[in-house]
Amino acid sequence: MEGDIKRVPLGNRRGMSLVELIVGFTILLVLTAMAVPMARGNVRRMKERELSRSLREIREAIDKYKDMADAGKLGPADGVDTFNYPKTLEALVEGVKGAGQGADTKIKFLRRIPLDPMTRTREWGIRSMQDDPKSQGWGGQNVFDVYTKSTERAADGTPYSEW
């Protein structure tokens, strides 16, 4: 008869049994559970490297500014304080007039203020030379040091704001 349906034995069926599906999903779940913390750790390490790089860039610009001001290479009318540190971070970007023969040119120390990878902003915590080294407030006299405003801690337990 042409209309009869042919029965296929159970051993020849295609597809997966419920047990095979459960085992497969369990293996995927375990692998995913292992990969997520590793990925988070990699993201954290990348942020920490970027934070170190940004802090170093700003601190080197502050040091160059101080060295040039100490050497008398910056004009006195540009807000150089008595300790020869910049008044603001923006002064490092906007530039200051040079003294002597280069008085017509502006000397810039940063192209732009680096992004803080922890807060995703360009707002940094600032300490002046007169402030306590661990203070979270700025006296406003000058820019001696910078720190991230993040309240997070590194893997070793130190706050990122103390880097």
Strand ordering within the main sheet: 1-2
Task: Please report the number of helical segments.
Answer: 2
- Based on CA inertia axes, which overall geometry fits? elongated
Low-pLDDT segments, ≥5 res: none
Percent range for β-strand residues = 5-15%
Q: How is the main sheet built? A: 2 strands, antiparallel
Number of strands: 4
Portion of residues within helices = 25-40%
Whole-number mean pLDDT: 84
The end-to-end distance, rounded to whole angstroms, is 85 Å
Rg measurement, Å? 30 Å
Helices and strands, in order, run as: HHEEEE
Structural class category = mainly alpha
Please name the defining characteristics of this protein.
single chain; 163 residues; mainly alpha; two-stranded antiparallel sheet; two-stranded antiparallel ribbon
How would you characterize this protein structure?
With 163 residues, the protein is mostly helical. It has a domain at 53-162. Helices cover 36% and strands 6% of the residues. The chain contains two helices and four strands; from the N terminus they run H-H-E-E-E-E. The strands form two sheets. A two-stranded antiparallel sheet has the order 1-2. Strand 1 (96-97) and strand 2 (106-107) form a beta hairpin. The longest helix is centred in the first third of the chain and has 53 residues, at 18-70. It is elongated. The N and C termini lie far apart (85 Å).
